[in-house]
Amino acid sequence: MEEELMDNILYEQVYYLIKETKKPTYLDFYDLDDADLKMIECYLEQTIRYKNRWYFITTKKQYFSNAEKRDTAPKIYLKNLYKKPIPIKEDK
Fold first, then answer.
1. 43 and 56 in contact (C-beta within 8 Å)?
2. 1 falls in which pLDDT band (50, 70, 90)?
3. How far apart are alpha carbons 59 and 76 in whole angstroms?
4. How far apart are CA 81 and CA 53, in angstroms?
5. pTM score
6. What is the DSSP string of 52-66?
7. Residues 58, 44: contact at Cβ < 8 Å?
8. Which pLDDT score is estimated for 52?
9. Which long-range contacts (CB under 8 A, 24 or more apart) does 77-86 make?
10. Would the pLDDT of 10 be above 60?
11. Which of 33, 22, 25, 57 lies closest to 43 in space, CA to CA?
């Protein structure tokens, strides 16, 4: 019985989505480079300029079937207009 319950567990991960925008939401913005992405949570729900493009940072959720997949999944994704999100590699 306990094994059946273990198979039904979903592991949730919150990740950051840096989504390109052509209409920045706020007049105040942050000009970021790769080093600033280590502290991306500081810019949540803010407009940023990254690599000469405008982005807005939000959070999204993903669900995984086991903890190992959740822990190894990327924490930051970059989404340009009309393209699929790509993970940004984190330097630890």
1. no
2. very low
3. 9
4. 11
5. 0.82
6. TEEEEEEEEEEEESS
7. yes
8. 92
9. 77/15, 77/16, 77/17, 77/18, 78/18, 79/17, 79/18, 79/19, 79/20, 80/20, 80/53, 81/20, 81/22, 85/17
10. yes
11. 57
Q: 90 by DSSP, 3-state: which?
A: coil
Model pLDDT for residues 20-68, shown as the tens digit of each residue: 999 887 678 899 999 999 999 999 999 999 999 999 999 999 999 999 9
Q: Of 25, 72, 66, give the one whose Cα is nearest residue 46.
A: 25
In terms of residues, how long is the chain? 92
Instruction: Retrieve residue 91's tokens.
Output: 């330097």
71: helix, strand or coil: helix
Q: Can you give the residue ranges of every domain in the chain?
A: 2-87
